[in-house]
Write a structure and sequence with these properties.
two-stranded antiparallel ribbon, two-stranded antiparallel sheet, alpha+beta, Enhanced intracellular survival protein domain-containing protein, Eis_dom
Length: 76
């Protein structure tokens, strides 16, 4: 990530908006792309890939797409 290129996004009930509040998880752009594509099947895999945050918070983020996997490819 380029220095000073930090973005924050709040995700709540299936919608997301820019936010200035501190997040429960921290992802790079690449990690966000992997998550969005359904690449993290477990919170442990996401944490091992470098996603930062409490394991419970990471689990919540991973669970947000787990019932729709693979969900991104369905739109192509």
């Amino acid at each position: 990530m380029v220095a000073g290129d930090l973005r924050q996004m709040a995700v709540l009930r299936g919608t997301s908006e820019p936010s200035s509040a501190p997040g429960r998880c921290t992802l790079t752009r690449r990690q966000l792309a992997v998550w969005y594509a359904g690449g993290y099947r477990t919170a442990t895999a996401a944490a091992l890939a470098g996603m930062e945050g409490a394991l419970a918070a990471i689990a919540d983020l991973v669970q947000a797409t787990s019932d729709r996997e693979p969900w991104l490819p369905e739109h192509f």
